[in-house]
Design brief:
By secondary structure, this protein is mainly α. It has 13 helices and no strands. It has 3 domains: about 70 residues, Multidrug-efflux Transporter Regulator, Chain: A, Domain 2 (Orthogonal Bundle), CATH 1.10.1660; about 35 residues; about 130 residues, no CATH class. The chain is about 65% helix and about 0% strand. Helix 1 packs across helix 3, helix 6 packs parallel to helix 8 and helix 10 packs parallel to helix 13. Keywords: DNA-binding.
Length: about 240
Amino acid sequence: MRIGEIAALVGLTTRAIRHYHHVGLLPEPERRPNGYRAYGVRDAVLLARVRRLTELGLSLDEVRDTLRDDTGRELAEVLAELDADLARQEAAIRERRRRLGALLADPPGPAGPVSPGLAALLAQAPGTDSPSAAKDREYLPLMDGTSAAHQRLFALLGKAVADPAAAGLYERFDALADAPVHDPRVASLAADLMAAVPDELFAAIPEGEAVVPGFKEALLAEYTPAQAEVVSRLMQAFMERSRG
């Protein structure tokens, strides 16, 4: 059989068959003297099986693994494993739909879908028009996580932002927007911000938690020089306290 003939037989396109050759899923058959590939019945059986497996939703890598692992195994065993894999996928889809349904019933705010802990933290944030407060709310989803450790961190941060003094700290930070980097207010604000962080928060930071390389520089670039100096001092003090 030529490639067009075997493609029609197994219900595939010639382009798909050539791709299977390219990725090593289907061995290249011998060629006739005229250069055309000569396919046999075994090739058709293999291609039909590849088509059925891909229709079940398996990726080509998964198909390759399945075909390799099937050597000497009973078909019933292979199908049972495929069925179990599909059951896991169905369970994952049902969970994703459950979460999506919850979001549709109670649409998320401007920050988008967030964990319960972060949602509670954002609800506790002081009512202020401070630009820096708005920036904090925008950046908080970066550290969002569903682990118990992250939820504990958000609960502790909630205590800090709920403090009436938090709004005043934001106002002092905003006031540095046009200040030079060596403004004397920088050191005092950094110290006061650090003092506002609950002591329990340092113990709640997950072990091995590290700042992604380049993140500090990217974050500081979002602020004016004096504000960036405050954030830099705060981050440094935070790292030293968490290590201690």
